[in-house]
Write a structure and sequence with these properties.
Helix content is 46%, strand content 0%. With 52 residues, the protein is mainly alpha-helical.
């Protein structure tokens, strides 16, 4: 009797989350002071428009 092992298909293995290549910047949680200042300005502009 032949000794057969169950194996997943190549496509199934490659599509699992742990076997995918990381996307550069996808997990980047850092942001610059300029980005923070812009977000703060945008938020303040939105607040002032709602009040008027």
């Amino acid at each position: 009797m032949a000794n057969k092992r169950k194996q997943d298909a190549k496509a199934a293995v490659q599509s699992t989350r742990l076997n995918t290549m990381p996307v550069p910047g996808a997990d980047d949680t850092e942001f610059s002071a300029e980005e923070a200042a812009q977000a703060f300005r945008d938020n303040n502009n939105a607040e002032s428009k709602r009040r008027t």
